[in-house]
Every structure is written in C-alpha cells, then in structure tokens.
Amino acid sequence: MCETGPRDKVKSKSVYQALRETKSMRFEMISRVMDQWREKMRSAAAIAISVLVASLMATPSSGAAPLSDFAKRILAAHNGERVALGIPRLAWSETLAAHAAVWADALAKSGKFQHSPASMRPGEGENLWIGTAGAYEPEEMVKAWADEQEFFQYGPFAPDGPHVVGHFTQVVWRTTTELGCAEATGNGADVLVCRYSPPGNMIGEKPY
Fold it and tell me: What pLDDT digit, counting tens, does each position of 117-134 carry?
C-alpha cells in the first residue's frame, strides 16, 4: 500500500499550478494573436473601402455622356478666364445646353439676334454671340465676351455704363456654377447661346 505524504501533495500541487499557468499563458498568447489578426483585418477592410470610395469619386457616372468637343472647348474657354481671376471653375450642364439650343435654333432660323424673354429662362443668365458661318472657333467666340474686360471698372454691376461689359461679367460671375451652350447656323451666320446658373449680372453686386 502506498501512502501520499505531505511532500508528494505539495509536489502534485506545484505541478497542477504549473499546468494551469501554462494553459493560461497559451490562452493569453492565442488571444493576443487573435486580437492582432482582427485589427489587421479591420485595417485591411478600411483601406479597401477607402480605395473603393476614391475610385467611385474619380470615375464619371456610367450614365453621364462624355462631353462633345464643342462643349469641352467652350467650357475650357470660360474656365480659363475664371481661373485667371482666381474664381472657381464652372461645370457643364446638359440641361442648360438643351435650353440654349432651343433659342439658338430660333435665332438661326429667324435671322434675328436678341435675348430670349426672361420668362423662357427663369433662374438662368444668357450670353449671345453671332458671326460669319464657319469663320470662328469656340475659343474666339468666348474671347469676344472676355475682351470686354478692357472696359470693365471693378465695382458693383451696373448695366447702364458707357461700355458693354455684361458678357464678360457673366462669364466670370463668382456665384455662377453651371454652364450650358449651343450653336446653330442659319442665314449665313453661326449663333452661339450660353446659359448660366445661377445667373450673374445682379445689379448692385460685384461680379467677383
């Protein structure tokens, strides 16, 4: 018969404690590894989401039609004048372009050259240009408006000044954010109509 003495009990207790401590250390190690893995997965997911969002923001909507060469050139000519004065760029609006096309066609067919009634363009400004058919580039059309800057004396807009400057001020009007233009040909002339939103040339206000 074998009896367990006090020393054997102490020894058994020490071995038991050592096993428990070893298991506890292993559990803590596994927990740390799992926590590190979860953190890496969260970071990777965050990076993936950031990349996806940036990609979506940089990629044009698949439903948006690409701008025509005419639209690109007219828009670039406007924005060139605005950037030179430190004014935010305009964005192209197909809605404004469609509205402009209606009036451009009407002018080309009638042979008249006049602004559309305000009732036809609520909330829209308007610039008009006319020249010999096929003789001018889009940049030259916009430049004709921009050249009015020579006569513009900075201050609140007044339509009854000694020189016509309203085309220039509308091109660079700071609070205008969207542009849409259309060109039509008739009676030996090209007619350009541009619409702006919000409209500029507010009497008593400074253009920029």
Answer: 999 999 999 999 999 999
| Alpha helices (H) in 85-193, listed in sequence order | 94-110, 138-146, 166-172
> Given the structure tokens 């096309």, which residue do they identify?
101
Structure tokens that stand for 23 in this block: 């298991």
Predicted local confidence at residue 121, as pLDDT: 97
What integer pLDDT is reported at residue 54 of this predicted model? 32
Dig out the tokens for 169 from the structure: 């001020």
pLDDT for residue 2: 47
Beta strand 189-197 with 125-132 is antiparallel
For helices 69-84 and 138-146, the axis angle rounded to 10 degrees is 30
Q: Is the Cβ–Cβ distance between 180 and 96 less than 8 Å? A: yes
Question: How far apart, in whole angstroms, are the C-alpha atoms of residue 77 and residue 99?
Answer: 20
Statement: residue 172 has pLDDT above 70: yes
Sheet holding 189-197, edge to edge: 91-92, 178-186, 189-197, 125-132
198: preceding bond cis by omega (within 30 degrees): yes
3-state secondary structure 30-93: HHHHHHHHHHHHHHHHHHHHHHHHHHHHHCCCCCCCCCCHHHHHHHHHHHHHHHHCCCCCCEEC
Residue 52 has pLDDT above 50, yes or no: no
Q: Left (φ > 0), alpha (ψ -120 to 50) or beta: where does 204 sit?
A: left
